[in-house]
Amino acid sequence: MDTSALFVQKPGHISGQPVHRKKPAGLSQRSRRLQTSQGRQERLVVAAIGSEGKDKAKLKLGENLDDRIMSGEFSDVGSTKERLTRPLRKLLAQDPIGPGRVLALALARVGQRWRTAAARRMPVARGDIREIIGQPVFIPLFKLYQVYGGIFKLSFGPKNFVVVSDPQITKQILLTNAGAHSKGLLSEILDFVMGTGLIPADGQIWRSRRRAIVPSLHKKYIAAMVELFGDCALRGTAVLERAAAEGKAVEMENFFSRFALDIIGKAVFNYEFDSLTTDDPVIQAVYTTLREAEYRSTAFIPYWNIKPLLYLVPRQRRCLEALQIISDTLDELIAKCKRLVEEEDEEFVEEFLSQADPSILHFLVASGEEITSKQLRDDLMTLLIAGHETTAAVLTWTFSCIADRPDVVARIREEVDRVIGDRKPGIEDIRNLRFTARCIAESQRLYPQPPVLIRRSLEPDTLAGFEIQEGQDIFIATWNLHRSPQLWDRPDEFDPDRFGPLEGPAPNEVTEDFKYLPFGGGKRKCIGDQFAIFESVTALAMLVRRFDFAFAPDAPPVSMTTGATIHTTNGLWLCPKPRADLEEVRQREAAAAQGGNSAAAVAHEEPAAAGAASSAGGCPLQTAAAAAAAVSASFWAAWGWADGSWM
Ligand code: HEM
């Protein structure tokens, strides 16, 4: 089945259905564009998954929350006991004879002690759960952060969460006292899909799986993957060229989701989803499962824990069927991989990379480690989910950030023309695509994926002087850290230069001292960080080199919806057009190449040829391995991985 119709449509139509337009009455196209260029924050509207049409009510809720925060209603300031006994104290103090006044004095002393004790308690924001649901949870958390500061307790009836938005407290939880925290709620939510995979796992299982999986992402593997990224970007280019020729808009979130799925399928278990051009039940099953994981992470009543409901509720039945399809597919791939490993009989050495199948699965099977099929399936599913939606979201929001920034696009182009021209980037080239990489880093600041990290304390602890009990659920509000006016100058502005000179180190949680967490930090830091950065830089460079992108004229405003990552509510509709001066630039490059300038040598690789190469058997590994071998230690040092922190 041809899938291009799923994300390429005439502007104003999504999947063949007329778009439910939400443009406010009286807001002309021109004023909408003005809003866009003047401040992204202004045009963001928040909404919840699957609840279109209720936006008005939700916005009211949001406004209501603002009013209530400002009125101090949420606050538990001072001591309640002291407040309640105050009228009595005042009454006793009026006693003309004496005993009342003595009692009033005693009460005042006790009240003072109560007030001092209250001052040591963490600020508490109490609320009605309806204030939070119905919008991406990080939006009300940001508003509450502005009132209560870097650490406060959010309390709903019997449930409460400590919300952390302070870099130093974050550092303590993720780095210096990481052992005292587990994934808590997250493990419970993700159990049905990831089991004891690396993201939800804790304790000994986490340690042994991290030790087994991290070595598979070695330098030769990453170099092979950079080849794969380029091949997939060329396939994406072909899709965009078709849309441009037909004058159609493209829903970029869907496009990047398929782009990232194709890559992660090959990279993790050598499966050709080919979702940019086809659709099949396995792809549908992956999406059903992903949506269910997001649904469960934002739903408040875990009814799926009641076994019979898994079979009675249609969405749960569909999810079970999808899980079965994926499980069967993974079992087949694991069996195939085991046969291949037996046949090839290659010695397993450090930085092992199979020529026929460079996937992580192949590395794990070839390592000979005794591991159950269930654990292997959990590992693969975890990597599939961790590496797919996150990267797709990063690319989607990056394109949203640059679509109305011709100044930024011009700088990316200047860099790409100079460094790679029409070539696919090799691993060394990425070192020189520094401004392009900064655009990805800045988009990750504005739209962190995921916007909130979840932990649970395993033992009593003290955070910023406040006592934390064992079992306390904690949210690290990455969105708050990344958007804090106290931590960043012009926090809502897309400014790729904010991280300092391009020659300096790539920004990460260490360079920014935990106010910036694009990939988490400490021992649970993302293991796919350089994989994801290289993938995103390759896609951004190759697509911006070839196309101009503009917001589709009749498309709905770009708005946010949250799941595990930040999605758009109605898509990101862009119109790709072939870059106006591309031929001119190519001629200049060709002339320079003929003139002996080898740096500008251009090898025009056309999408069809690249697609054929990739479907014929994947990456040109020899080239990749040679490239990896040639990559100097200083390259990895420049990206901050020389200390082995990427492992
Ligand atoms: C731009 C893309 C990506 C982003 C933004 C991202 C972000 C993150 C973040 C923030 C964490 C830390 C979660 C926490 O502390 O609770 C994490 C963990 C993780 N990521 Fe990524 N990730 C990306 C791509 C990838 C890729 C491509 C892979 C695999 C190939 C991957 C695999 C993992 C795994 C396995 C963990 C769990 C590590 C552990 O707990 O030991 N991620 N990621």
From TrEMBL:
GO cellular component entries: chloroplast
Cofactor: heme
MF terms in GO: beta-carotene 3-hydroxylase activity; heme binding; iron ion binding; oxidoreductase activity, acting on paired donors, with incorporation or reduction of molecular oxygen
Keywords, sorted A to Z: Heme, Iron, Metal-binding, Monooxygenase, Oxidoreductase
InterPro entries assigned to the protein according to its UniProt record, in alphabetical order: Cyt_P450, Cyt_P450_CS, Cyt_P450_E_grp-I, Cyt_P450_sf, Cytochrome_P450_Monoox
Annotated binding of heme, by residue: 526
Transmembrane segments: none
GO biological process, one term: xanthophyll biosynthetic process
Disordered, as annotated region: 13-40
Pfam families: p450 (PF00067)
Entry keyword Metal-binding: yes
Family to which the UniProt record says this protein belongs: Belongs to the cytochrome P450 family.
Protein name: CYP97A1
Native source species: Parachlorella kessleri (Green alga)
